[in-house]
Structures are given as structure tokens and as C-alpha cells.
Amino acid sequence: MYERKTLPDLNCGLDLIGEVLYGKWKMRLLWFINEGFKRPSELQRKIPGASRRVLNVQLKELESHELVGKVIYPVVPPKVEYYLTDFGQSLIPVIGAIGQWGDEHDQRLRTLILKNA
Amino acid sequence: MYERKTLPDLNCGLDLIGEVLYGKWKMRLLWFINEGFKRPSELQRKIPGASRRVLNVQLKELESHELVGKVIYPVVPPKVEYYLTDFGQSLIPVIGAIGQWGDEHDQRLRTLILKNA
DNA sequence: TTCAATAGGGATAAATTTATCCCTATCTGA
DNA sequence: TCAGATAGGGATAAATTTATCCCTATTGAA
């Protein structure tokens, strides 16, 4: 586990939400869990760009921040299902708004990003 | 300048918006510029947690992504003013929604974050 | 009986982001 | 005359995040 060496700023809402949502895959994880992809292996398949490892790590953080919960079925082979807590649910409209802006400006963004790569 | 070694994923709206908004201070910069803090020095005072340098760098990226523009006044000492482009403006409601969620859950987030620090 | 699927964590390397420090220039005020 | 404000960039170090690789365990299928 990595231990942070500096304290986070917690001045405004943006700082606060940043602490729980700032992670490359966190919004996607929440989004896909909300869409019904609950098992780690399903999420890994939905997000092929991320390594298995990071997804585990970020899921764990989401869990520690009470945005998701998990159910471990005592079966073999192992079966785990994540779900959104009410707290996590409340974030879905926000993530929706973010993703929607990206979708709406898809073409322009794509062009800009590639031009500045 | 840092040159990236891997290509970005550009699959969905979240990837796209991430490319222009993923940077510790970018949302705050847009927000404060929108509130009327236009000069670099004003922005630096509004965001004391960030080094002068990063703010410059991130402003430059926002500019290259056409979210902000800048006016350089040919005076001495130098005077520069940033402004939101229409494109940048269109992001303000999204940032508002994000910050609002953070504000609404201020107490809970603060507790969670500190507990997991 | 060997391989894939299942879940997840440790150790370490690589990539990326952010911070620090220093340098350029000019004007105003103490 | 020296400090401070103004804007901004280079070089480098530190912090942080993400990727890679490897290991544990069990069951069912080829």
C-alpha cells in the first residue's frame, strides 16, 4: 500500500469530491456497476484499458469511501458482487452529466486531444 | 515539457472529458475564471495550495484545449487576463454539479477521507 | 492432468503529475 | 537602491498513480 506524504486540501466541494473520485477508472467503475456489471471479472472486461490490479485497488478505495459495497459469496470458484450504496447512487447523476458533456462534444474533443498529443 | 509515452484511451465521453479536465486544479481554474478572477496572480491567490508553476502549466493546457483564451495587454508590468471560451462556458454547469455534490456531502466526505488517510 | 476462470494481494518498475528552485524583465514605492 | 508585484519558462526532484509480473486456491472442462 502506498502511504501519502502530504495532506490533502479539503477546502471546497471540489476538493472533497476529488478525494473520492479522482482516480482514472473510478467513475467508470461506478457507472458500470450501476449498469449492472457487478462482478470484478465483468468490470475488467468492460474496462480493458485498465489492469486488473488497478481496478481492484480502485474498487477498494471506492469501498472504503462507502460509495460501493461488496457481497462475497462463500462459493468456489469465488464469486463477488459489488453494488452501489445510496451514497454512491447519489453520484450517478453527476457522473452522467460529466459523461454526457464528453459525448456531446465527442468530435471536437477528439480533434483537440489528438492535435495536442 | 513532458511527452507522454502511451496513447490515451478515447472510447467514451468519460475518457474524452478526462483528457481535458483531469488535472488537479483545472476545474478550480475554470470555476474561478468564471467567477471573475481572470489574472494569473489572482488565480494563484485563490488557489494557494497549488504552486505558481502548475497553475501556469494547467492554464496552458486549458488554453490548448480551447476551454480558455487569454488576452495579453502590452503593458509593463505585464498584465494578462484569461476568459472562458463558449466551449469552456459549457462546462461550468457540469463543474457546478460536481462541486455541489461535494458541498452537499461535506461533512460525510470529510470524515471518510480523514478516516482513510 | 493440464488449462481457464474466479478473486485478490505483494513487490517492483514505469509513467505521469506536481513541487521546488532559479532566471528573465520592468516599474512603483519605501 | 532594494524589495515586491507582474507573467512565465527551464531544469530537476519528489510524490503519486498505474502497469507488470508473480503467487495463492479450487472447480470444471477438454
Automatic annotation (TrEMBL), chains A, B:
Naturally occurring in which organism (per UniProt): Larkinella humicola
Protein name as annotated: Helix-turn-helix transcriptional regulator
Domain HTH hxlR-type residue range list: 12-110
Keyword DNA-binding among record annotations: yes
Keywords assigned by UniProt, alphabetized: DNA-binding, Transcription, Transcription regulation
Gene3D superfamilies xrefs: Winged helix-like DNA-binding domain superfamily/Winged helix DNA-binding domain (1.10.10.10)
Sample GO molecular function, one term: DNA binding
Lineage of source species: Bacteria, Pseudomonadati, Bacteroidota, Cytophagia, Cytophagales
Top-level division of the source organism's lineage: Bacteria
Keyword Transferase: no
